[in-house]
């Protein structure tokens, strides 16, 4: 199939129709009303020149950023998109002054107006709910596909998190699409295109009859594989669901997150379909921070809560970190710090080839931990159980006891033999404790 770029006047749409090719266009250079007229002209031109008028494929490129809160979306895209608009040849009409001829105040006002107008009418900015109507409108006027442009200067972590809201929008907008495809294997009714195949949850032993799901979050640099044998030692009515973060395991080619806020937002959206039955969280080291903030986000945004939160191998979030940050250190110093902190398995540190593969994810994970800023909120309503290693030099018993402040329900602390990686060396004792704590729910 051949696409012709049509971003100017009606003549290009007429030419595309006459040639029988598809159309690639955008809203930066025209309004929806103008595009509606041009699509009609395009299909009429196809018919006049012996081409099936409805077979022509109209692809619309839209600047896209979809999140769960429209004001957060507006704040995240405003500055980078205004920078983008400064270089746009269509920001001002031919009778307007050039930006360089305006005063600073006039320039700021013009750009602010242009951004707000574009935000509301010419882009796919907003929440899945607010964007759904815009997608439906574009579908009505004859747009077959939206090509989402996401690279316009927004922070990479924010873009990655927003992809899961975009996925939600795609699924909802395509819900009524006939699954039949055209002769060119193009899905004619599919409005939003996506190539994401990432899977957040792995299923070492699927158990659809389980009465409880246990979502497990690994340590810095760790992968879902850490929990692969757990189903063999836990109650049969419990389904173990390890979470695979980007940048490791089966998602080794995906860019890892470097900020907890965006990581947790993405995980929440990915897990929502699986929160249809009681669930619990287990997190070790970095995973304890992810699971804790995820529990707070689910409560705040979705009214959902785990029945139990298991936090392992790390201090309570309100306890300050006394260690200086290391995620920006040069590689030799970073590796030496990892060894001293005992935060990465020795077997991994000794394998130079494996370390080169995992280093980007480990460094990103430390950025997640070290840039985190605790914000006080009301305590969780679920019970919390903390685990610690008796020989762990970095995490004291008092650091773990402080978790009691984060729950309105029961709290318990288990100290197990071993260093920071007692979840491996003392795994039978750990899983026995998990079984006992979760027994009332299964």
Structural class: alpha/beta
Poorly predicted ranges (pLDDT <50, ≥5 residues)?
89-95, 177-190, 194-198
Instruction: Please report which band the strand proportion falls in: under 5%, 5-15%, 15-25%, 25-35%, 35-45% or over 45%.
Output: 5-15%
**Which sequence of SSEs, written as H and E, runs from N to C?**
EHEHEHHEHEHEEHEHEHHHEHEHH
User: Taking strands numbered 1, 2, ... along the chain, how are they ordered across the largest sheet?
Assistant: 7-6-8-9-10-11
Straight-line distance between termini = 55 Å
The radius of gyration computed from the alpha-carbon positions, rounded to a whole number of angstroms, is 26 Å
Helix tally equals 14
Categorize the overall geometry: elongated
| DSSP, total strands | 11
The residue fraction in helices comes out at: 40-55%
Reported for the largest beta sheet, the result is:
6 strands, parallel
> Mean pLDDT score, rounded?
86
Structural write-up:
The protein is of the alpha/beta class and 442 residues long. 40% of the residues lie in helices and 14% in strands. It has 14 helices and eleven strands. The protein has helices at residues 10-19, 32-48, 70-86, 104-121, 128-140, 156-173, 260-271, 286-302, 331-341, 346-349, 352-370, 397-401, 422-425, 427-438, and strands at residues 3-5, 22-26, 58-66, 124-126, 145-149, 212-217, 238-242, 279-284, 308-312, 383-389, 411-416. The strands form two sheets. A six-stranded parallel sheet has the order 7-6-8-9-10-11, sandwiched between helices. Strands 1, 2, 3, 4 and 5 form a five-stranded parallel sheet that branches. Helix 6 (156-173) runs parallel beside helix 7. The chain is elongated, with a radius of gyration of 26 Å. The chain starts with a strand and ends with a helix. Residues 89-95, 177-190 and 194-198 have low confidence and may be disordered.
């Amino acid at each position: 199939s051949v696409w012709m770029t049509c971003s100017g006047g009606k003549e290009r749409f007429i030419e595309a129709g006459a040639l029988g090719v598809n159309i690639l266009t955008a809203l930066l250079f025209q309004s929806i009303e103008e595009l509606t007229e041009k699509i009609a002209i395009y299909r009429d031109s196809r018919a006049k020149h012996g081409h099936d008028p409805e077979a022509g494929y109209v692809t619309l490129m839209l600047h896209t950023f979809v999140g769960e809160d429209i004001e957060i979306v507006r704040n995240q895209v405003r500055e980078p998109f205004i920078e983008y608009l400064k270089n746009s040849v269509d920001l001002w009409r031919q009778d307007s002054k050039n930006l360089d001829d305006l005063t600073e105040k006039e320039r700021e006002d013009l750009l602010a107006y242009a951004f707000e107008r574009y935000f509301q009418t010419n882009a796919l900015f907003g929440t899945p709910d607010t964007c759904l109507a815009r997608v439906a409108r574009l579908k009505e006027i004859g747009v077959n596909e939206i090509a989402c442009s996401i690279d316009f200067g927004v922070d990479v972590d924010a873009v990655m998190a927003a992809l899961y809201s975009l996925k939600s929008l795609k699924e909802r907008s395509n819900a009524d699409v006939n699954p039949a495809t055209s002769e060119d294997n193009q899905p004619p009714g599919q409005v939003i295109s996506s190539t994401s195949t990432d899977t957040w949850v792995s299923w070492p032993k699927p158990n659809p009859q389980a009465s409880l799901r246990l979502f497990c979050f690994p340590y810095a640099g760790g992968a879902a594989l850490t929990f692969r044998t757990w189903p063999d030692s836990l109650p049969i009515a419990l389904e173990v669901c390890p979470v695979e973060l980007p940048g490791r395991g089966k998602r080794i080619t995906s860019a890892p997150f470097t900020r907890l806020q965006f990581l947790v937002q993405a995980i929440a959206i990915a897990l929502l379909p699986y929160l249809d039955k009681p669930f619990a969280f287990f997190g070790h080291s970095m995973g304890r921070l992810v699971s804790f903030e995820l529990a707070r986000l689910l409560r705040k945004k979705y009214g959902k809560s785990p029945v139990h939160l298991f936090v392992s191998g790390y201090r309570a979030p309100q306890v300050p970190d006394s260690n200086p940050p290391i995620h920006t250190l040069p590689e030799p110093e970073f590796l030496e710090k990892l060894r001293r902190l005992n935060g990465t398995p020795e077997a991994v540190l000794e394998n130079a080839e494996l370390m080169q593969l995992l280093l980007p994810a480990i460094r990103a994970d430390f950025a997640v931990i070290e840039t985190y800023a605790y914000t006080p909120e009301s305590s969780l309503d679920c019970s919390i159980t903390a685990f610690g290693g008796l020989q762990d030099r970095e995490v004291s018993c008092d650091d773990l006891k402080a978790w009691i402040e984060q729950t309105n329900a029961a709290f318990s602390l288990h100290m197990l033999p071993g260093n920071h990686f007692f979840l491996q060396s003392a795994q039978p004792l750990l899983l026995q404790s998990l079984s006992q704590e979760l027994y009332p729910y299964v």
